[in-house]
Write a structure and sequence with these properties.
The protein is 71% helix and 0% strand. It contains four helices and no strands. The protein is elongated, with a radius of gyration of 14 Å. The N and C termini lie close together (12 Å).
Length: 73
């Protein structure tokens, strides 16, 4: 976050990704979608919901690595 601010990049990860042209393989999930996936996994063991959450989190992590490289951190 601080490295982004230093480079004039404000907002959350998704906003910074858009500004830098980082494209995700799936559209980012909205907060209510994340909560819905977690609830479906927790209460119904919905494997599809779990896969969606894991993919979303994987892209967050991989894009943070890419962002560090782009910022030279």
């Amino acid at each position: 976050m601080y490295d982004c601010w230093y480079h004039g990049l404000k907002g959350g990860l998704k906003a910074v990704e858009r500004r830098l042209g980082i494209v995700r393989s799936q559209a980012p999930l909205l907060n209510y979608q994340i909560q819905g996936c977690w609830t479906r996994w927790k209460h119904k063991q919905d494997e599809d919901a779990l896969r969606r959450l894991l993919k979303y989190n994987e892209e967050d992590v991989m894009n943070l690595v890419l962002l560090r490289e782009m910022l030279g951190v």
